[in-house]
């Protein structure tokens, strides 16, 4: 009943009791409070036993669906399906478990073969020069460096430190 009362709280109650009641009457008051608590505890126990005796069977029938609901909540989706659809027979689901295990074993063996066999080609920071094999519009093939866009980009760049070459300055707006 008082299981959540700590020793510090009991000590505070004793000190307050000493100050309010006094040291001569405090032991008698503690015994009276103890007797009242024991009487309340016994009354609750007797009431519980009486209700269990009179309504025990009805209460058990009422609490049975609640227990089943809690069991369904705790068992999860797979357990619920097994219980309701398969009447608790899990042998239907075991071929799926075996197939899953076989697939995992196969995947693991392929991973280990891939590690032990030819190593995958590592990416380099420098792109390789690739010759374009497809014929251009006039029938000649070009290297990747000869892309007209890159050439045009090199010609368009300008020196922005020189104020005469900067375009779009505020002087142009006014």
What do you see in this structure?
- The protein has 174 residues and is mainly α.
- It has a domain at 8-110.
- The chain has helices spanning 7-20, 26-86, 94-116, 148-156, 170-173.
- The longest helix has 61 residues, at 26-86.
- It is elongated.
Question: Which helices and strands, and how do they pair?
Answer:
Layout: H1 7-20, H2 26-86, H3 94-116, H4 148-156, H5 170-173
Family: Belongs to the TatB family.
InterPro entries: TatA/B/E, TatB
GO biological process, one term: protein transport by the Tat complex
List keywords for this structure.
174 residues; mainly alpha; 64% helix; elongated; transmembrane helix
The biggest beta sheet is recorded as: none
Rounded mean pLDDT is 72
| Basic shape | elongated
Q: Using the CA coordinates, give the radius of gyration.
A: 44 Å
In percent terms, what proportion of residues is strand? under 5%
Portion in helices: 55-70%
Tell me the span between the first and last alpha carbons.
88 Å
Q: Tally of extended strands?
A: 0
- Number of alpha- plus pi-helical segments: 5
What low-confidence regions span 5 or more consecutive residues with pLDDT below 50? 133-138
Would you tell me the structural class of the helices and strands?
mainly alpha
What is the element string, with H for helices and E for strands?
Answer: HHHHH
